[in-house]
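Worked example

This section walks through a single chain of length 190. The input is the sequence exactly as stored; nothing has been trimmed or padded.
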Amino acid sequence: MWDLLLEWDQKILIFLNNLGTEPYDTFWQTLTKYPPWIPLFILFLFLIFKSRPWKEALGLLFVLGIMVLFVETFSNLTKLVVERLRPNNDEAVKSLIRVLANPSSYSFFSGHAAMSFSVTSFLYFSLRKRCRWIWICYVWPLLFVASRIYLGVHYPSDILVGALFGLLSAWIFQVLYLNLILPYLKSNRP
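Given that input, the structure is written out below as tokens.
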């Protein structure tokens, strides 16, 4: 059963990756990096400070920062434990896909997926009552993770597990914020 899942994972990657064409390569290579998304991050900061008193906003950013460190650390440790080769480094796969990037680290699970889904989900949970259109920000992680398949550096299962881990992390850190940080901040209001 496990071998069948890995085979499907490879076949889905090969199919999706080979949908790419050269005219779009620069677009996807740009999307996979963090700097093009800086305006979105500025929007996130603006929405946080617009929707909350400044102490609550700072508390929210503190928890968000701790979550980012947790997700990054856990993602990197998992890669070292699992040691799954990236498609671009796997001799059996790389000749069947378009490889546009060559990271040498391991593949499972996608740190890009985990990070983008955790940040977006945490902010969605935090802002959804005050900003009804915040769900649109999920365009970022969806494009971000699609770029990883387009570039040939992650299998779909790496993306799926990373996204699920990001969602779970966001939920856990949201619960921590609501139960441990926010009551303290509200009790100290002038």
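What to look for: The longest helix spans residues 156-187.
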